[in-house]
């Protein structure tokens, strides 16, 4: 995956935005679902991290609306990936995550010290050979989405 626009990896550059239409989300998820190698492909891990971050913030109307569009799109495309990814993403669509991912999602909300946030991020990034890093990248994308939404609400 090309996690930064300036990387010249030739991989896919994920694009998920809270203002995307269903068709736009369908296209973005289609680019990610099943993309990459391994038991849990890179694109699936990215989606998992993105969902995990946003799940904790769905009390905000724009995030709730975004998830309302995104969740069925992901569910509809689960057949395109591995059985293990289908399992984890299926649970994520219901708000269930592995403990380290869930912990990382809640640490910032609780106002934990930066060192606790760093430890939680490291725990997630240690999954598999690249799964944790891909999941964390999706988590960071979720933070960007959240930042845009909260900035728009303040305007």
Describe what this molecule looks like in 3D:
InterPro entries: AllH-like (IPR021530). This is DUF2877 domain-containing protein. This protein has 155 residues and is mostly helical. The chain has one domain (22-154). 62% of the residues lie in helices and 0% in strands. α1 packs across α3 (61-77). The longest helix is centred in the C-terminal third of the chain and has 24 residues, at 131-154. It is globular and about 35 Å long. The mean pLDDT is 89.
Note the topology.
Blueprint: H1 22-32, H2 42-55, H3 61-77, H4 83-92, H5 99-106, H6 114-125, H7 131-154
Helix pairs in contact: 1-3, 2-4, 2-5, 2-7, 5-6, 6-7
Protein name: DUF2877 domain-containing protein
Mean pLDDT: 89
Question: In sequence order, what are the helices and strands, one letter per element?
Answer: HHHHHHH
Q: Biggest sheet, open or closed, and with what strands and sense?
A: none
Instruction: Please identify the structural class as seen in this structure.
Output: mainly alpha
Oligomer state equals: single chain
Strand content: under 5%
Number of strands: 0
Could you estimate the helical fraction of the residues in percent?
A: 55-70%
Estimate the global geometry from the Cα principal axes.
globular
Radius of gyration: 15 Å
Number of helices: 7
End-to-end separation: 34 Å
Unreliable runs, pLDDT <50, ≥5 residues? none
List keywords for this structure.
single chain, globular, AllH-like, 155 residues, mainly alpha, DUF2877 domain-containing protein
């Amino acid at each position: 995956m090309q996690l930064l626009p300036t990387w010249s990896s030739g991989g896919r550059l994920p694009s998920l935005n809270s203002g995307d239409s269903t068709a736009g989300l369908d296209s973005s998820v289609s680019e990610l679902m099943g993309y990459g190698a391994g038991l849990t492909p890179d694109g699936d891990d990215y989606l998992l991290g993105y969902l995990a971050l946003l799940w904790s913030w769905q009390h905000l109307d724009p995030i709730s609306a975004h998830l309302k569009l995104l969740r069925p799109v992901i569910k509809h495309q689960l057949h395109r990936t591995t059985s293990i990814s289908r399992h984890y993403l299926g649970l994520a669509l219901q708000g269930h995550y592995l403990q380290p991912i869930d912990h990382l999602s809640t640490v910032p909300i609780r106002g934990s010290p930066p060192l606790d946030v760093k430890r939680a991020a490291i725990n997630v990034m240690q999954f598999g050979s690249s799964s944790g890093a891909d999941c964390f990248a999706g988590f960071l994308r979720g933070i960007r989405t959240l930042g845009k939404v909260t900035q728009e609400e303040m305007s």
